[in-house]
Amino acid sequence: MALLQMCLEDGVDCGCAHVNYHHRMQADEEEAYVRAFCASHSIPCHVLNEPFVYSGNFEAAARKRRYAFFAQIVKEFHYSGVLVAHHMDDAIETFLMQEEKGLIPDWYGLKEERMLEGMLVVRPLLSYTKKQLEDYCNERGIRTFFDETNDDTKLTRNRFRHDVLDQMSLFEKQMVMEEIKRKNAVLQERRCRLRTEIREDAVELDRYRALPEEERLTLLYEFLKDTVSYSRKGLQEVDHVLCTRKDFLIPVGEKQLIQKEGRIYCVSPVVPYVCRISGPNALSSVSCPYFRIEQGVPGVNAVTVTEADYPLTIRPAEAGDKIRMRFGAKLVHRFFIDRHITRYERTCWPVVLNAAGDVILVPGLGCDIDHYSISPTFSVIQYFSHE
């Protein structure tokens, strides 16, 4: 209500969006007051008061619902964005919760401007305390409503509100806001600098390890923020693996952190594949993200096959796979160890089997003794994709 009145006094051409969740006894009374206020001041009033059905956390579900509604209204009526009335107390509560949870946030406290749901969201009241806004409304005879759920100290935000903020003076709150401002300045400078370490969707492992811990964690946050959200403790656990192991395959959300040729990549897990090749004419139609088939050229990727070898199968190497070489059978796993093939590549490295189920080619190692010639039928080129 304070924000709306300020817009009126400053001549801001605006509309009002109100969401009634029917979650509190005063909800309908509040909606009626907002509608009446807007009508008396010729302000367009957009109200969403359909039954609110949700699962899980009410606050999270309610937030998602109202911002989706705001975005709908902004688009439909061609508004420039949305003004929301978060104030200084809200920003401090958010900051204290971030600190308690040990988060490395995108922004400490609340950001004055951000893009959300494709619209500009602006918080112009962060320099005002809640009491200052209440006083502002009282001086103008504007009614305010109390949300009784704010008394539930089982909620972390309410606990900070009553146990900490209610005990702070205006000066103390302003000092906390200065601390938030300072931390954001440091955070944004560090992020801008460390983003330059991410090149071609990868980070050099040696350069990463050479950084101080705080910078490593910030770089790791930047590298993973579009994939998964980690607490500080979670980032430290990932960081420990990156700094102590030569080879790794770390689940991060729906992706994996891997090492390849001294670089860190965030990749999708290998999709299991089995390619069946019925005959020579089917070779050109084989498509797989982990290898390609080319014209046969003598070397460690080539194999010579006859009609009796079809149908061929190309699949990832499995435990126990062996191939008969000139000096006896060799475990494919041993080849991986000898050539320092990474754990990730081992999960997708192709092998070619003939109709009898014998491994007749391991790209990079070669074909078995019965399928070698100076005029190979085809070559299988294994390659690394970090998509």
Give an overview in words:
The strands form 6 sheets. The chain has a 5-stranded antiparallel β-sheet with strand order 10-13-16-17-18. Strands 6-9-8-7 form a 4-stranded antiparallel β-sheet. A 3-stranded mixed β-sheet has the order 3-5-4. The mean pLDDT is 93. It is elongated. The chain is an alpha+beta fold. It has helices at 2-9, 27-40, 58-77, 88-101, 130-139, 156-163, 170-195, 205-210, 213-224, 232-244, 332-338, 343-348; strands at residues 16-19, 45-48, 82-83, 113-116, 119-122, 202-204, 249-252, 255-260, 263-267, 275-277, 291-295, 302-303, 312-316, 322-325, 328-331, 350-353, 359-362, 366-367, 378-382. It folds into 3 domains: 2-175, 3-Layer(aba) Sandwich (Rossmann fold); 196-267, Up-down Bundle (Chorismate Mutase Domain, subunit A), CATH 1.20.59; 275-382, no CATH class. Helix 4 packs across helix 6 (156-163) and helix 9 crosses helix 10. The longest helix is centred in the middle third of the chain and has 26 residues, at 170-195.
The average pLDDT score comes to 93
Q: Rounded to an integer, what's the Rg over CA atoms?
A: 31 Å
Q: Determine the strand fraction and express it as a percent band.
A: 15-25%
CATH topology of the largest domain: Rossmann fold
Question: Biggest sheet, in brief?
Answer: 5 strands, antiparallel
Total number of helices: 12
What oligomerization state is this entry in? single chain
Number of structural domains: 3
CATH architecture of the largest domain, by name, is 3-Layer(aba) Sandwich
Strand order of the largest sheet: 10-13-16-17-18
Name the CATH homologous superfamily of the largest domain.
HUPs
Distance between the termini: 49 Å
- CATH class wording of the largest domain: Alpha Beta
The strand count comes to: 19
Low-pLDDT sequence parts: none
Helicity, as a percent range: 25-40%
What class do helices, strands and sheet pairing give? alpha+beta
